[in-house]
Write a structure and sequence with these properties.
homotetramer; 91 residues; Methane Monooxygenase Hydroxylase, Chain G, domain 1; elongated
């Protein structure tokens, strides 16, 4: 997924730095609500990354499986999509 | 917040390592759904940290403000709690 | 909570009608994604109502308990707020 | 979607009754946190219904489109799935 994989990698690198920034905020005893708001921003950035990965997944693996002859493989990718949907928003 | 702050710091350190692990998964071209599930686990870990910070905040700053004489300070902490509630679940 | 209670009641009445509309969409065999999007709109409307109730709760019960002499009552309202935060976004 | 449509219809009927129950709680001036918790239960029930509709959608419309010859139709169903994922958890 080349260009997209680069974008995903860059965003995860940025999330890592953001998490380190939050660690410093905790060490420095910054105001709890400010820290909570930064954590919310990190969660939003992670949701964006998940969406990009899912976009790629739908156009690659899911498309291949759904257009292929293997009924079990089709059932598997559909079941995985349902599980992702069910897990979403639980955090 | 001493012992609790240590626990929060340790959990954020663990989240940072988890994010690096996800970066390696992307580099290694691992299965998208496995990566998405790891990101979901990170979001859950972050939600737990937010809950711990909020717990501390309620028992420290919010309690002080609410029991204090400054009506504007009380209004401010209540407004912040509402904003946190509204932002929650949007990621 | 008078005017606010009226607004909450009106919004819940509207949610009830919205749910009936979704029932009709199911009966009429409408496109699943259109139905799912209407359900998402209902969930958003319910979140708004929860926010209004929480706003009232913070300014009434929580303020009374926090400014009162009963430490157990203070602990109870703080614990309830934490539980609401933890349950939020799990649906 | 026959048996499943019956189940979805029955669950939506139950949600409608639940919403009316919450309206009565508001009229009777019941404790805000109890009302908020009931609203959370309704949101969970609606998420379950969305999951059932999505399950059906994946096995019917998405499977048909993905296995069919129309590239634009395939792109459309994938785009809709991404939008549902992005909207999930925002309430």
């Amino acid at each position: 997924m080349d260009a997209k994989a680069d974008d995903v990698a860059r965003r995860l690198k940025s999330v890592e730095g953001h998490v380190r920034g939050v660690q410093r905020m905790v060490e420095d005893g910054e105001y709890c609500i400010d820290i909570v708001n930064q954590i919310t921003a990190i969660q939003r950035a992670l949701k964006k990354v998940s969406g990009m990965l899912l976009d790629h997944h739908l156009h690659a693996c899911v498309t291949d499986a759904m257009r292929g002859p293997d009924a079990a493989a089709r059932e598997r990718v559909l079941g995985e999509l349902l599980e992702v949907f069910e897990a979403t928003g639980k955090s």
